[in-house]
């Protein structure tokens, strides 16, 4: 019997081995290199039957994670599961992001065992639904503490942990425990972390995971009633897309993110998205008509796809907004007509679809507008000739 075989089959220490290997399973951690990730993954896969068992995972949660979060000054309370009396969310754009240095001196998960949060993330990624539901009292407190921490890096790690958790929960469990309301408010606050106060390399993944979690939560909180679920989508689109474009709409990567989620949310809301059409169409058209976007063509790709989705989903109410739509489409076409490339071809294809869809919705009502645009700029003739 090899030395490692002896260690892996010893029930008293194999959970320690698993924790050490799990430390190198999160690629974004500064201590994780490609080599130690590959080696740790290989060992965990080879000795999976010994190192990743139900008993080992529970012991990690109980003895390897919980003690390091138990000294937090705001100890977790199940009273926080209670649904807030007011449905109104109080948004705070910024927290005092780097004000928690003194607190970190008395938080063992930041000092004694800095890899603790990474081990939690890995554990949740491999835990089965049964383990999570039977031991959620070991999981929720660390997640709340990480989410409430002022450092956005810990918020990001917590949102990734939460994604693993929610993907293994059903609506019955969420309703029974009340974690839906608890995490909803925390995640909404995460949507306020924008550049320049937060570096874009942290802000984008934090916003993306928070948006994904909120979308998942909306379905878990309101699995049956779409009209009630749409009210949650309303909050996401206001706090995520509209506020995001207001505060960081000048950042190319942020615009790409917001246009992507505009398309997703409109698709999920369906005809209910018409309530936001007054804000959505000017928002998307402003991205299309900006000539400076030529240096960031992916913005135009996502904006044109978002506009296509809005036109197709909200078509019953699209008529009054067709001048704004035409403005965005025409400016974008004029800016890219002489350009070449795969992204340019994709943008032209999406714009062509948008104008054809608009024509189909409005019929001959658009003919005069098309003629006026071609008279104003002959370059538009090639665009409208096949419509």
UniProtKB/TrEMBL annotation:
GO cellular component, one term: TTT Hsp90 cochaperone complex
InterPro entries associated with the record: ARM-type_fold (IPR016024), Tti2 (IPR018870)
Domain of life: Eukaryota
Record Pfam families: Tti2 (PF10521)
Family: Belongs to the TTI2 family.
Name of this protein: Uncharacterized protein
Organism per entry: Pneumocystis jirovecii (strain RU7)
């Amino acid at each position: 019997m090899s030395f490692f075989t002896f260690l892996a089959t010893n029930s008293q220490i194999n959970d320690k081995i698993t924790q050490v290997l799990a430390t190198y399973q999160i690629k974004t951690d500064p201590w994780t290199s490609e080599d130690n990730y590959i080696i740790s993954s290989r060992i965990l896969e080879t000795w999976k039957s010994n190192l990743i068992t139900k008993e080992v995972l529970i012991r990690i949660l109980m003895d390897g994670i919980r003690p390091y979060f138990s000294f937090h000054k705001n100890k977790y309370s199940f009273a926080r599961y209670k649904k807030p009396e007011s449905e109104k969310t109080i948004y705070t754009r910024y927290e005092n992001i780097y004000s928690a240095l003194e607190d970190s001196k008395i938080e063992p998960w930041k000092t004694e065992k800095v890899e603790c949060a990474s081990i939690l993330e890995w554990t949740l990624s491999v835990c089965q639904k049964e383990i999570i539901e039977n031991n959620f009292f070991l999981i929720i407190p660390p997640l709340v503490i990480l989410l409430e921490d002022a450092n956005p890096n810990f918020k990001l790690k917590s949102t990734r942990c939460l994604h693993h958790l929610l993907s293994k929960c059903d609506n019955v469990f969420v309703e029974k425990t009340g974690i839906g309301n608890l995490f909803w408010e925390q995640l909404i606050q995460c949507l306020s972390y924008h550049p320049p106060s937060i570096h874009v390399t942290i802000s984008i993944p934090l916003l993306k995971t928070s948006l994904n979690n909120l979308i998942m939560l909306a379905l878990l909180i309101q699995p049956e009633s779409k009209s009630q679920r749409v009210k949650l989508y309303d909050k996401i689109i206001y706090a995520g897309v509209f506020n995001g474009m207001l505060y960081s709409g000048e950042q190319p990567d942020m615009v790409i993110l917001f246009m992507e989620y505009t398309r997703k949310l409109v698709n999920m809301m369906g005809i209910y998205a018409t309530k936001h059409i007054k804000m959505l169409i000017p928002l998307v058209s402003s991205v299309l008509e900006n000539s400076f976007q030529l240096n960031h063509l992916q913005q135009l790709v996502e904006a044109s796809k978002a506009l296509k989705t809005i036109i197709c989903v909200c078509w019953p109410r699209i008529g009054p907004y067709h001048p704004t739509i035409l403005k965005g489409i025409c400016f974008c076409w004029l800016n890219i007509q002489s350009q070449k490339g795969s992204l340019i071809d994709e943008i032209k294809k999406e714009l062509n679809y948008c104008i054809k869809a608009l024509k189909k919705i409005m019929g001959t009502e658009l003919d005069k507008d098309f003629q006026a645009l071609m008279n104003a700029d002959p370059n538009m003739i090639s665009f409208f000739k096949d419509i």
